[in-house]
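Archive entry. Fields below.
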Amino acid sequence: MRTAAPPRWPGPGILVIPPLVFVVIMFAVPLVQLAQLSLRPSDAFNRLLDGFTTENFRRVLSEPYFADSISYTVVNSAVVTLACAVIAFPLSWVITRTSRRWLKVLVFMVVISPMLTSVVVRSYGWRIVLSSEGPVNSALLGLGLVEQPLALLTSRAGSVISIVHVLLPFFVLMLNSTLKALDESVLRAAQALGAGPIRRLMQVILPLSVPGFVGGAIVVFSLSMGIYVTPLLIGGVNQPLGGLRVYTQVMTSFDYPTAAALSFVLLAISLIVAGLLSAVQLVGGKRIHG
Amino acid sequence: MADRPRTPGAWALFAAVALILLFLVGPLVVVVVSSFSATSSLAFPPEGYSLRWYEQVLTSREWRVSFSLSFLLAALAVPTVAVLSLLGGYGLVRGAFRGHGAIQAFLLSPLMVPEIMLGIGLLTYLQSWGLINTITGLWLAHSLVALPFGLRAVINVATSLDPRVEASAASLGAGPVRVFLTVTVPQLLPGLVSAGVFAAVISLGEVAVSTFIAGANTTTVPLRVLSAAQFELDPTAAVVSTLLMMISAVVILVLERLLRVSDHL
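PREDICTED_STRUCTURE:
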């Protein structure tokens, strides 16, 4: 006789095991080994020695070649994150609130198109746009605004603009999920109570969008702390950006322990900033709901 | 607001959005136009138009080898990421186990680590396995980079599933594996396909990690574009970039028609 015993099935939870094993083997273990490497001494020829040292971290935090690049990178990432926040909001608003399907699809496609295009392709585009014979300089020369082509490729602005272009889609996607959930009736209530469009934006929409802004800022700031491919193509390898310094240490100096230490400092800063931003969100959330 | 473009605020919004779209698309359009240049200079706008750089790329053995390698890697990464995302995404949404939030955060965390760190981390790690300059190494690395995107896509779809559908299939006598394969997976298809698309697109474009773990025998298309863009100042890189963009555009347009991905991301 068959009894109606529940099937032998430990539940969908076990399905998580294969991806979990994969991420442990391919991500957690390499990072742990990288952490060990950052604490290993090496000789004058960058050969690894046995033992334990904090010398690599001391070098990274005190030698101007590294230390200055860290502060430069933090400022750069902050500017990139702010620019992304300002640019992402109108895009997200149109994608999530418009009732015109074609407009939603058009904006969405254009916004994620950089994500679907290799970072090399996008950076290469900016390389042409900003070059001395590129469209920007042609226009400036044609209008008689400048006598000589500007060195846009090696300017800090050129580097920031191209990084914003690369990271903007991440901000928009994070903001979308918050704006999608924004209750239309709250806006109608604000309007009925006499709030004009600017007041609705400043006092209702933006405060309610804080989680999306915080999420977007955390992702964009973290990604821009270690970015190196885009600045490598736009401003060259000598800009004082953390990602490029790590790249140079590995590819040119073969100094892995210092590269590992610097990359952990960059990671630590992005984690601290992520923590601070989440704290801002908690405090802000209490002010709105409490 | 966006639906009544007669108010000044809405016009300002439309103008801002139009400008931003131009900023996003402009550099990509410039690449496409440059690829048809008749001369070897990258001056923009080009002095004349031709297909000579396309001919040069399509008849070059080096580029053909790189394209086959990149397509092979995408073909390996797509099923890997799709299956891992399906299992992980569904397991996370339906599974009841301790440390649920921590496991989800952990599985998504490769996205939050600076790309340079993944690159040098995998460089030293794969070196110890002898997987530098191998297809296996690149396959594993591309799958890791794409997995958080695929997981997010599956999680988004799985969250909106109605558990009663699976429950009724089970109560009609279908075993758990059969329920999963014939009821759950078909419902998760949009997420699964998005995961596959992310894997294909990321694998075809990955450079940040690949730079460190590829070698002379494993130069993928984007790595070759990177070195061409850095060291050769003719439009071949623009041609290959245009071809890569066309592949992405076709994929995303087909998916938008089939699955309306813009609603799922």
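CURATOR_NOTE: Chain B touches chain A through 90 residues (CB under 8 Å).
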